[in-house]
Amino acid sequence: MLPSINSTFAPNVKEQGPFEMGMGITDFPYPVENFLAESGPIPAHVRIGWFRSVINIPHAFAISSFIDELAHEAGKDPKDFLLGWLTPDHVLDLKAAGVVGEPWNYGAKPEEQRIEANRYRGVIEAATKSAGWGEALPAGEGRGLAVHRSFWSYVAVVARVKVGADGVVSVPRVDIAIDAGFIANPERVRAQMEGAVIMGMSNTLYSDLTFAAGRVVQSNYTDYRITRMTEAPREIVVTIVPSDRPAGGAGEPGLPPVGAALCNAIFAATGKRIRTLPVADQLKPAMA
């Protein structure tokens, strides 16, 4: 759980607000019995600013990472396990789910922008088909899958990673599928998905902020790492899933599932779980 951005605008804010909980928590689509989602008190120690996809990013990372862990413990393929939790034709009823207060749905009424299992399933099927899910990979390589709904759009990501003997992670290919409802300009959507992949790589693998004496230590891109051109995937394949639903977002929904897909791929390649970000030096062998 992370502090609320509302702490920037008002004193004594210690919990996420309903709109933040609506970004992946109270709109949780999987029919888990006895599901309870609460926001615990976490004070903000620094000023929080807006970030692309807002708090969907940590929510998506936690949920999609844990689902992959459950699939492994159950001895099942992550794609099959995930689809098994998405009952066809199921539409999430936020009121019936027991959301306290007025359910938050990015400003739309639940019936205007429904939360539909089939749309999750559609992007999962599209991304895994594009990626060649299930095809054998060389040793030290793996594929990871993650899916998330945000801003009324559904996005699934399959990341392919390679981890060298030195622990360095490279990402030769990422497949990303989006169902954003009605789309007026497909090329703009493709560009947004490609940008989301690069930004998600930066967040997950490299970028780190540290504090000392009340100040951020990092000063610029010399010591705040982002994805370089030489590190970017050789292939980013975007699939737009046709949809007759009302238009959703495209500028932000591509980012949330990228981190979990990368870390799930790292697990598939190495057997090591990543639970804290950035990955940075976590995979590098210890010095003799």
Comma- or semicolon-separated keywords:
four-stranded mixed sheet, 288 residues, alpha+beta, 8 strands
Summarize this, please?
The protein is α+β, with helices and mostly antiparallel strands and 288 residues long. The protein contains 6 helices and 8 strands, in the order αααββαβββαβββα.
Strand order of the largest sheet: 3-4-5-8
Structural class designation: alpha+beta
Shape: globular
**Proportion of beta-strand residues:** 15-25%
Uncertain stretches of 5 or more adjacent residues: none
Number of helices: 6
Residues in helices, as a percent range: 25-40%
How are helices and strands ordered from N to C? HHHEEHEEEHEEEH
Sketch the major β-sheet.
Answer: 4 strands, mixed
| Overall pLDDT level | 93
N/C terminus separation? 37 Å
Strand elements, count? 8
Rg (CA only)? 19 Å
What can you tell me about this protein's structure?
The protein is an alpha+beta fold. The protein is built from 6 helices and 8 strands, in the order αααββαβββαβββα. The protein has a 4-stranded mixed β-sheet with strand order 3-4-5-8. The chain is globular. 39% of the residues are buried. The model has no long low-confidence stretch (mean pLDDT 93).
Topology of helices and strands:
Elements: H1 18-21, H2 56-74, H3 78-84, E1 91-92, E2 115-116, H4 117-131, E3 141-150, E4 153-163, E5 169-179, H5 186-206, E6 211-212, E7 215-216, E8 235-240, H6 256-270
Parallel strand pairs: 5-8
Antiparallel strand pairs: 1-2, 3-4, 4-5, 6-7
Helix pairs in contact: 2-6, 5-6
